[in-house]
Amino acid sequence: MDKKENNKSIFKSPYMFLVPPLLFYLFFWFFPVLISLIQAFTSIDGGFSLENFRMMFQDDLFAEAFFNTLIFASVSIVLQFILALSLALLINRKFKGSKMFLFIMLIPMAIPPSAVGILWNTGLIQTGWINSFLSITGVQNLMELMGIASGPVIWKQATGLQAVFMIILIDTWTVLPSVMIIILAGLQNFNEEYTEAAKVFGASRSQALRHIVLPIIKPTIITALLLRLISGLQVWLISVMIFGFNTVPFLLERIVFYTDQVRTGVYSYKLSVTYSIFVVVLVAVSAFAFVKLTKTKDWSGANE
Amino acid sequence: MSFLKLERVKKVYNKTIEAVKRFDLEIERGEFVVFLGPSGCGKSTIMRMIAGLETVTEGDILLNGKSIIHLEPKDRGISMIFQSYAVWPHMTVYGNVAYPLKLRKKTKEEVEEIVNEAAVICDIDQYLKRYPNQLSGGQRQRVAVARAIAVKPELFLMDEPLSNLDAKLRVSMRTDLKRIHQDLKSTSIFVTHDQSEALSLADRIVVMNHGYIEQIGTPNEIYHESESMFVARFIGSPPSNFLDVKVELEDNKVFLVHSTFKYEINNKFVKTLKGKYIGKTIVLAVRPENFTIGNKGIIKTKATIVEPQGSHIVINANIGDVEVKIVSPILDILPNQEIMVGFTESIGLFDKDTEKRIK
């Protein structure tokens, strides 16, 4: 009788509800991560080895991929922060037509990444819409007069940092609305009386923005930028869509390249797994550093 | 020359909504003026125009004889207490009080001295290092007051500063505000919809309704000589009771006739009533405490509901088809008990058409 009661109580325990998610994490998170770790730290014969990491560091494009990734993540986060904040502040002023403006701004969010690639690809080819636009508006002539360009610009021949900056601009075009909308949400929750108090007590507009508004919505901004930092370190698709593999390397572009493009079996597989581990560590370290560096003093985010 | 002067001030939103239709007021230095009215009457809008947080559509606002309507809020020499307190959450209490002083380019020593002084006045000196979310509503309110007095303003604006506090704290805070005003003698404008707050704080009350001023006067004038039925209804808790009565002349005596009573008028009203109102229906306004209960009464009725208040009781009774509230010091009246109701001399009469007071 007692035993039966006991059995029943185990199944009635609230912890039973944790079983499905635990199973989920076990199969779809823990095992893959474990397997990747094992693969990365073992040689082909199965013993523990750092051989894969040596191979990765010696990869011809590793240094450039690493450098490009860092440049991309840091420049895009700054650029997107400044633009998103300005736009959010503008839209938050609720001028006539601000809702329409917001609507138009959000359109890039609705376009899937590969379509973004195609869109910009058709723009960046020599006879693409960007060059047409430049020539119709007369900017092309101006550029030629000033000696910046001779003949239509061949955008897709850009290499190195130029190419990275082009990708940054395209990425910014795509993700700006999502950053902006998080900051805008922060601003709309913001108690207007905080700013009004600042103005009454002697602050100019810009002082009120710098001393009152920004510090108070800082937690929101940090969240938005942290998300951007993480996905910035994982950039690859735009680069591949526009320049193809091996042209403007990024860390994640390497992973995709070695999993998808090279079919030399176990070596490239191990290389891509090792790159993955490297990216995971990079993302974790950067995110942690970002949160630490931007930490607000403890006022417990009382964003009332 | 008055200290603050508002001339024909008008505020229109979106070209159609008239929040303030016309507002004329002069305030002397050191006065405590309360803007009182129901929500949407334009009282906060007026205050925000004085602060510079709203533009003025028409008219002018003069401070010390100079127009201020084109000045930025920061250049007007005012300070303000907000309904939500607007105590900045990312600054300590000290930081909140000190920030306006820093903007005024005071030295560190001056700032410290002024903050400490203001903190002592507002009784928050033990919380200076705390953040606002570690304080109760009442303490935050005190921080807002300390911040406002620290800048030694020409003019002190308060926009429903007590409405977020619980009832008990509201009453004690209101005494504190009055004390601070008496000590500092700063000219103050206080916006509220709470008539008891207005009565207890104000030197003068400005009663507003639908964007107009209904009456300006001392608390006693507003209460005992309400200029309109709106004011009589808005002020007092419970408010005035209104009874429609007919003015009749018999043997050269003026009577107010109601279906349940006939009351002879023999004071200042006689002349006016004889002149204009014989045979007409007017409104008799009686404050709850201006009813009498006892043998001298002229109306026989029954107490329907009795609400004891400690020092007095509030009786609901029907006079004709109107339910009136009577405040009585006689504490032992029971529900359904028959009572004889009369009036004291302090009654008010209103014109039924214009709703204005008959003098």
Structure characteristics:
heterodimer; A: 304 residues; mainly alpha; MetI-like fold; B: 359 residues; Rossmann fold; OB fold (Dihydrolipoamide Acetyltransferase, E2P); 2 domains; six-stranded mixed β-sheet; 9 helices; elongated
Walkthrough of the structure:
The complex is a heterodimer of chains A (about 300) and B (about 350). With about 300 residues, chain A is mainly α. Chain A has 14 helices and no strands. Chain A has one domain: MetI-like fold. The C terminus of chain A is likely disordered. Chain B is α+β, with helices and mostly antiparallel strands and about 350 residues long. Chain B has two domains: about 230 residues, Rossmann fold; about 110 residues, Nucleic acid-binding proteins (OB fold (Dihydrolipoamide Acetyltransferase, E2P), Beta Barrel), CATH 2.40.50. Helices cover about 25% and strands about 35% of the residues of chain B. The model of chain B has no long low-confidence stretch (mean pLDDT about 90). The interface between A and B is medium-sized, with 26 and 26 residues.
Brief description of this entry?
The complex is a heterodimer of chains A (304) and B (359). Chain A has 304 residues and is mainly alpha-helical. Chain A has 14 helices and no strands.
Task: Write down the overall mean pLDDT of chain A.
Answer: 88
- SS summary, helix count of chain A: 14
Query: Helicity range of the residues of chain A?
Result: over 70%
Calculate the terminal CA-CA distance of chain A, rounded to whole Å: 55 Å
| Subunit arrangement of the protein | heterodimer
Counting structural domains of chain A, the number is: 1
Number of self-contained structural domains of chain B: 2
By DSSP (H or I, 4+ residues per run), the number of helices of chain B equals: 9
Beta strand % of chain B: 25-35%
